[in-house]
Amino acid sequence: MNNKPWLITIFMGLLLLVIPTLVIAQQSAYETLPPPRKLTAEQSKVAAGNYQKYCALCHGEDRQGHANDHAPSLRSKSLFESGVPHAILRPMSYGREGTAMGGYLDEVGGPMTLDETWDLTYWLFEQSGVTRLKLSTNPVLGDIKRGESVYLDNCTTCHGVNGEGITAPALGNQSALAHNTDEFIRHAIRYGRQDTPMQAFIDKLSASDIDNVTAFLRSKASGWKAQKTVLKELPTPDKYVINPQGQDPSFSLSDNMYVSSKDLNEALNANKRMVLLDTRVTSVWQTAHIAGSIPFPYYADLDETVAGIPKDVQIVAYCSCPRAAADHTINKLRRRGYTRTAVLWEGIFGWMNLGYPVMRGEIAGVSD
């Protein structure tokens, strides 16, 4: 062989031809589906407006992703060719429990009707310009122990050792695993997410190891069951001010904006007079919120929501990003002349992780 270098050249040339052919062959293994129903001009206009109102803060005005809280891109080819409608519709409608993604469907306390969530799903698909693939609903079989090893070697920097999500989606999230098929997960591993840090592993891992990682992730879904929160009545303006007869708190704000969880908790325990604004989508306020807070979503019309909130009271806003939606809201209030304002630095997840209490929503069918 050493005397025939031309054989090596021919072999390498053939190899370079074969690898793309194998990739194309795997892609062509998927059948295609016709596009979903076409939106009318009016439906598209409303859906585009809803995207900017509810989604752009985190996912970006041009759907590019990672504008806040590592929210994923909503224009990746592989996502929309494999995920329409349900892999898009379900998290939009019901959220991702334990993450900053709340549910936007009205039946869980969100601002959109079922028709509006469907239309926004189809609008996002139309914007992507891709062809839908028909994915199998059969389970992907693999060696779970081997899949765990491959996952730990390749995925933890972004997705976390326990699938909790660091700079990328939480792959261990129970609602995501319940909603997404094995083939949807495998397709994402194979082809990545274009225009995001999620690379394609089709030419980096063997087909069997991709199956193994898929099987490992699926194994984390055992024991999850859907729960439905009983929706509370929303607070009326006469309930907006906590401890109306109490003294005003005196916070020392960092960057003229942020109050710590420790200081806020001390003020609450001392029955200080305040208004707490939960700036997340209202559905997650229904699930868990700091006692006394009022739902004040970042996308709401201020002319409607500020009614009943006096300007002489200390206002503290929080979200789960941990601060993007709260920052957005407080800056709008400051432009309206509300000067006694602050943002909870750690956000509600940080608040809970530090051991401070929240009010939990009542689960349908569960009683003490």
Can you describe this structure?
- With about 375 residues, this protein is an alpha/beta fold.
- It has 2 domains: about 30-220, Cytochrome c-like domain (Cytochrome Bc1 Complex, Chain D, domain 2, Orthogonal Bundle); about 230-365, Rhodanese-like domain (Oxidized Rhodanese, domain 1, 3-Layer(aba) Sandwich), CATH 3.40.250.
- Helices cover about 40% and strands about 10% of the residues.
- The chain is built from 15 helices and 11 strands.
- It has helices spanning about 5-30, 40-60, 75-85, 85-95, 115-130, 145-155, 155-160, 175-180, 180-190, 205-220, 260-270, 280-285, 300-305, 325-335, 345-355; strands spanning about 30-35, 130-135, 230, 260, 275-280, 290, 295, 315-320, 340-345, 360, 360-365.
- The strands form 4 sheets. Strands 4-9-8-5-7 form a 5-stranded parallel β-sheet. It has a two-stranded antiparallel sheet with strand order 1-2.
- Strand 8 (about 315-320), helix 14 and strand 9 (about 340-345) form a beta-alpha-beta unit.
- Helix 2 (about 40-60) packs across helix 5 (about 115-130) and helix 6 (about 145-155) crosses helix 10.
- The longest helix has 24 residues, at about 5-30.
- It is globular, with a radius of gyration of 24 Å.
- The N and C termini lie far apart (about 80 Å).
- The model is unreliable at about 15-30 (pLDDT under 50).
